[in-house]
Amino acid sequence: MIEYIPNDVVIKTIIKKSTGNVTAVSVDTGENITEKTSPFDRFIQIIEGRTEIVIDDNSQTLETGQSIIIPAHSQNRIKANDRFKMISTIIKSGYE
């Protein structure tokens, strides 16, 4: 579904609707996903490899098959100490 590109982050939208979206992401070793704060909860599932996710200065390492919910309005960053792939799901419904 998505391949690694050396020294890069690849994002492929699987579905995008007004109520949310699902994306597949591959991240090469040493790359990071920009720190951000989202107004919505985000469900992250690691489908290959290992990553470090920092939520409000609390760090957790996730490996293949593990998942985490990043709460709405939390500062977060995703670091690729090793390369990895993930599925990111954002549900916007219920925030009206």
Structure commentary:
The chain is mainly β and 96 residues long. The protein has strands at residues 9-17, 20-27, 32-37, 42-55, 58-63, 67-70, 75-79, 84-91. The chain has a single domain (9-91), classed as Jelly Rolls, CATH 2.60.120.10. 0% of the residues lie in helices and 62% in strands.
Helices and strands in order:
Elements: E1 9-17, E2 20-27, E3 32-37, E4 42-55, E5 58-63, E6 67-70, E7 75-79, E8 84-91
Antiparallel strand pairs: 1-2, 2-8, 3-7, 4-5, 4-6, 4-7, 4-8
Task: List the total number of helices.
Answer: 0
Q: Give me the count of strands.
A: 8
Number of domain modules: 1
Q: What is the terminal-to-terminal distance?
A: 33 Å
| Radius of gyration, in angstroms, nearest whole number | 13 Å
Unreliable sequence segments? none
- Mean pLDDT rating: 93
Note the overall shape: globular
Strand percent estimate: over 45%
- Here the CATH topology equals Jelly Rolls
Q: Any idea what the CATH architecture is?
A: Sandwich
The level of helicity is under 10%
Q: Give the CATH level 1 class.
A: Mainly Beta
Structural class: mainly beta
Q: Spell out the helices and strands N to C.
A: EEEEEEEE
Please give the largest β-sheet: 8 strands, antiparallel
CATH superfamily: Jelly Rolls
Summarize the structure.
The protein is about 0% helix and about 60% strand. It is an all-beta fold. Strands 1, 2, 3, 4, 5, 6, 7 and 8 form an 8-stranded antiparallel β-sheet that branches.
